[in-house]
Amino acid sequence: MEKRAFYITTTIPYVNADPHIGFALELVQADALARYQRLIGEDVFFSTGTDEYGQKIWEASRREGKDAQAYVDFYAQKFLDLKGILNLSYDNFIRTTSAGHIKAAQEFWRLCNAKGDIYKKIYRGLYCVGCEKFITEKDLMDGKCSLHPTQNPEMVEEENYFFRLGNYKKELLEYLSNEKVVFPEWRRIEAIDFVQDGMEDFSISRDKKRFSWGIEIPGDDTQVMYVWFGAFVNYISTLGWPDSHGAYEKFWQDGEKVQVAGKDMVKFQSVMWQGMLMSAGLPTTDTILYHGFITGEGGIKMSKSIGNVINPNDIVKEYGRDALRYFLLREISSFEDSPFTMERFKEAYNANLANGLGNLASRILTLSSKHLEKCPEIPEHSIPQEWKDYLNKFEINKAVDFTWKEIGELDKFIQEAEPFKVVKVDAEKGKKLISEMMLRLYTIARMLNPIMPETNVTLKKLIKENKKPEKPLFLRKD
């Protein structure tokens, strides 16, 4: 049976600060879904990267007294380092300053221009540097951008190129009528409302006199590409488009295309990007998954501009990669805002990893190594369909909850069956009970594959070798 092509991407963050826990959530969610698809035998391409152009980056490089390219090289490396920090399995890391991406963005521009969807006009309006876009009165809260309350919008007038998004209203509403294109459902409704009520043509270039850090526009050396227009193209340039001989055709043209994004990206990802694809005559995205924000103390959104972010590397150094992945994928909602505090993290770590999974594995493996000569024969297909169903619907939280339900039931089985007592009075019956526990533990280990890949490997190895852990899988933190 031929493998199905499955393509998954994250958004690409600006490289104007260190990575924080909010983007770690997006990366780990996408990684879990990519690992799951590989586990069930699909052919997967997982892409992430960095967005390295734009006014925010230009201004940040000036503040630090650095050349813009040197600045983005320095910060891009911090995002590349997340591969090891979070144990990510992506297939490509795309940078928007790469020659291949620049070529792709310029070719994409040509396609939209040839369709008649790009025009030039003078525009005067409020401009938010944080959003890197013109905003309207509807976007303001107390005179400031609702997404960047610490920054004052600028009044800007300049001649820019615009994209005729209005040409695609009918096609976009038809696209969004499919219930499978956006999860959760209320984000799809949000996208539909935006198309019906607030959708306008949008600016896709900036005058070089204001700043020159951007991709040059074909045929006009006075303007650079608006960061959003150029950055969107990463989703296909990472596959080698327009020169691809296989990857683009396999994964974008013919495969299932899934994108993971933050909830503030709805109009950008589900409307603007899809309209651009329609203009260029390329296939639209199959599914976009919108996660909520991670909030800190008092329910305040974590953001670089507010300065209340948590660095994922700090947590990994103390608790390990799998502990952070577990928390992000179970204790943080797949689709809604969720709080992240170190107290909450530590409580979940001790209860569910150290005392839960770790203690259960130690008890079973101690019994098996003492009373069984070898590991019982492991059936090839033992992963419950219910667990797969959750991940097929992108409900990562529920899949992890299901895994911990199995952990709880196995723990209850030990309490009630008392194999540690039975084996002393009836060796055969006791060994049978221990063998059953080993197989159930192995199934749990399999379900940890996308969520906690290191623990998955360690636990399966211990079970197959019939060895008890030399040290706890998770050390309790008091």
UniProtKB/TrEMBL annotation:
Keyword terms of this UniProt record: Aminoacyl-tRNA synthetase, ATP-binding, Ligase, Nucleotide-binding, Protein biosynthesis
Domain Methionyl/Leucyl tRNA synthetase: 138-364
Keyword Lipid metabolism annotated: no
EC number: 6.1.1.10
Pfam families: tRNA-synt_1g
UniProt keyword Protein biosynthesis, yes or no: yes
Gene3D superfamilies referenced in this protein's UniProt entry, alphabetically: 2.170.220.10, HUPs (3.40.50.620), Isoleucyl-tRNA Synthetase, Domain 1 (1.10.730.10)
Superkingdom: Bacteria
GO terms of molecular function: ATP binding; methionine-tRNA ligase activity
GO BP term (any one): methionyl-tRNA aminoacylation
Job description of the protein: Is required not only for elongation of protein synthesis but also for the initiation of all mRNA translation through initiator tRNA(fMet) aminoacylation.
Family of the protein in this entry: Belongs to the class-I aminoacyl-tRNA synthetase family.
PANTHER family the record matches: METHIONINE--TRNA LIGASE, MITOCHONDRIAL, METHIONYL-TRNA SYNTHETASE
Protein's name in the database: Methionine--tRNA ligase
Protein source organism: Candidatus Nomurabacteria bacterium RIFCSPHIGHO2_12_FULL_37_29
